[in-house]
Specification:
- Chain A is mainly alpha-helical.
- Chain A folds into 2 domains: 69 residues, no CATH class; 212 residues, MetI-like (MetI-like fold), CATH 1.10.3720.10.
- Chain A is 72% helix and 0% strand.
- Chain A contains 15 helices and no strands.
- By secondary structure, chain B is mostly helical.
- Chain B has one domain: MetI-like fold (Orthogonal Bundle).
- The C terminus of chain B is likely disordered.
- The chains are: A mainly alpha, B mainly alpha.
- Chains A and B meet through helix 1, helix 4, helix 5, helix 6 and helix 8 of A and helix 1, helix 4, helix 5, helix 7 and helix 10 of B.
């Protein structure tokens, strides 16, 4: 009786173990599926012989650093494809879009969540309705608007500038909504206490609400940074030269030239990807939380 | 010294407080508008105005660079009538629906499966989560270029892999130049890039399901499949709807991949609605016609979004706003 029990317990244990091994095998297989293009890109980028990059594709050598290795491809990308300038462009546009966006979106969200004013409910419904309009739906008419928009110094068009890549993306209905949802859930006690102590309304926003809102600020910042860094369609439409265009458009232009220099292309691609991957690895918990929070939109 | 009668005195005091209160209220309302104005102006200039203008322009023959010989004029429904018999537009719409029908179920199921795998209490799950998620942070432009090389017809890795596992029976295929294969190839790549995003959303949903539900089911002798069908799926109802709807909308916004990899080719086999709108408006400068395409695109997105609101309201109401 007791023997039987222990043997069945043993099979249960072994079954559990087998299941565990099976799960790990499956998960490693999936990890290979998700990693192979990225590993392939990184490995190919350090192979200096253009022919070899293509040749190695027909075997596992594609994933092994063999042959003439070095950073020549990277040097080429800097030298012949103006990588530095375009990297600066991408970074500048991203930082300004995200930083100004955080301020602008959190301010209106705070007003909607906490302050009493006429028209508030209509404003809130309009902003929630605006979430539905994807940028693609306004891209074409926006092109004709920015084409003939004035700017300081007598400029009559916004094409080929930094601000044309920044302004359309500062105010974002979804970011406002995320901030709003966060603000209405902060307990009012702290703000009320501060008000009794004679703090100004602006002081309450800046000294109490903003410091309490670090999680949502991180969430919005991450989502908007990823969007800005990877944005392709709009900068493709509004930038023509290398002076202001971002990396995504730069690599596409390079990709369109023949003959395709795969080694250089992979170096270019790696340099767009590596900074984001590093930031992601450092703050992965925040990244995952940001993405998860987009799901609670109802 | 004369004092007003008691009731009056109270009234006056109340009046004073009211005055204080109303200055405070005015301050509050002024600050609220001050805080809201930048966002309101930006949203009006960059979303509302172009959106309304798109509708108006879709009834005109406007061009991006005005042609003095063809002045812009109101042409009524002509753009929309032309869309009805525009084969390229039909192909583009068809492709978007094709993408939805294949990718939405596949990607949703795949993402849910991954989330359930990751959600187990085993060592190293965080590492796997990071690995599965990393394509999401990779720019679609980069992904498209890397996969173009992987799909290379001669020596491409994907052909090599297929030949190896089929002992030379399959391939090599011209993935991106074959009209039948080009769109499935783009779909596979899009799933690879996007599935980690939905996985994380599902993971958050799974973690909200109370474990007591599973424990109770175990007591009742439910097996894994029954638990999945009767607990996991109903509990994830709203998350599932959200993921499927947002993937559908993303499918209609499809642009980056097709622009970089094929530019809609070969012979429009990978044309999409958004690519066609941009090619028409920005490439061929026909803003009026492009606006009509944009309006159709928006109506589709709107219908899908309304569908989502309806689906999540009924039954799911009360659970997760």
């Amino acid at each position: 009786m007791s023997k039987e029990k222990s043997s069945s317990k043993l099979t249960y244990q072994t079954r559990k173990k087998i299941k565990k091994v099976f799960t790990y095998v499956l998960m490693i297989f999936l990890a290979v599926f998700f990693m192979f293009p990225i590993v392939f890109m990184l490995i190919s980028s350090i192979k200096e012989d253009e022919f070899q990059v293509v040749q190695d594709m027909s075997s596992l050598r594609a994933f092994v650093p063999v042959g003439e290795l070095g950073l020549q491809n990277y040097r080429d990308v800097f030298e012949f494809h103006n990588f530095g300038q375009q990297f600066f462009n991408s970074l500048l546009v991203m930082l300004l879009t995200v930083l100004i966006g955080l301020l602008v979106n959190s301010m209106i969200a705070y007003a909607l969540a906490r302050l009493r004013f006429g028209g508030k409910n209509i404003l809130l419904s309009v902003i929630i309705a605006l979430i539905v309009i994807p940028f693609e739906a306004v891209a074409v008419p926006l092109l004709i608007i920015v084409n003939n928009f004035p700017w300081f110094g007598g400029a009559t068009t916004w094409l080929d500038t930094y601000h044309v890549q920044i302004f359309p993306f500062i105010a974002d209905a979804f970011s406002i909504f995320l901030f709003y949802q966060f603000f209405i859930n902060i307990p009012k006690d702290l703000e009320e206490a501060a008000l009794i102590d004679g703090a100004s309304l602006f002081g309450i926003y800046w000294k109490i609400v903003v410091p309490l809102s670090r999680p949502i600020i991180a969430t919005v910042a991450i989502l908007q940074s990823l969007n800005a860094w990877n944005r392709f369609m709009w900068p493709l439409m509004v930038t023509r030269g290398q002076e202001v265009r971002p990396l995504t458009v730069g690599i596409q232009a390079f990709f369109g030239q023949s003959p395709r220099l795969w080694g250089d292309l992979m170096a270019f691609a790696s340099m767009i990807t590596i900074p984001v991957l590093i930031v992601f690895l450092l703050f992965q918990k925040w990244f995952v939380q940001s993405v998860a929070s987009t799901g609670i939109k109802g | 010294m004369w004092l007003p009668p008691l009731e009056n005195r109270e009234e006056i005091m109340a009046e004073n407080n009211k005055a204080k209160l109303s200055t405070y209220k005015r301050k509050e309302s002024r600050l609220a508008w001050l805080f809201s104005t930048p966002a309101i102006i930006l949203l009006i200039v960059f979303v509302v105005v172009p959106f309304i203008w798109a509708i108006w322009m879709s009834f005109t023959n406007m061009r991006l660079i005005p042609n003095p010989n063809v002045p812009t004029k109101f042409i009524g429904l002509e753009n929309y009538i032309r869309l009805l018999s525009d084969d390229v537009f039909h192909k583009a719409l068809f492709n978007n629906f094709y993408f939805v029908i294949v990718v939405v179920p596949l990607q949703t199921a795949f993402a849910l499966g991954l989330a359930m795998l990751i959600n187990q209490e085993m060592k190293g799950m965080n590492i796997f989560r990071t690995v599965y998620f990393s394509p999401v942070v990779t720019s679609m432009t980069v992904v498209s270029i890397v996969w173009t090389l992987l799909y290379n017809p001669g020596e491409g890795l994907i052909n090599t892999f297929l030949q190896a596992i089929s002992f030379g029976q399959l391939g090599p295929y011209n993935w991106l130049t074959n009209t039948k294969l080009v769109f499935p190839a783009i779909m596979l790549m899009s799933i690879w890039q996007g599935v980690g995003f939905q996985m994380v959303i599902f993971l958050a949903g799974l973690q909200e399901i109370p474990t007591s539900l599973y424990e109770a089911a175990e007591v009742d002798g439910a097996n894994a499949w029954q638990k999945f069908l009767n607990i996991t799926i109903p509990q994830l109802r709203n998350t599932l709807i959200f993921v499927m709807i947002s993937t559908t909308i993303l499918a209609f916004r499809l642009f980056d991949q097709v622009k970089v990899m094929t530019n809609g080719g070969p012979s429009n086999a990978s044309m999409t609605t958004m690519l066609y709108a941009i090619e028409t408006g920005w490439g061929r400068l026909r803003i009026g016609y492009a606006s009509a395409i944009t309006v159709v695109f928006f109506i589709i997105v709107l219908i899908i979004s309304i569908l989502q609101r309806i689906l999540t309201r009924e039954k799911g109401a009360g659970k997760s706003v």
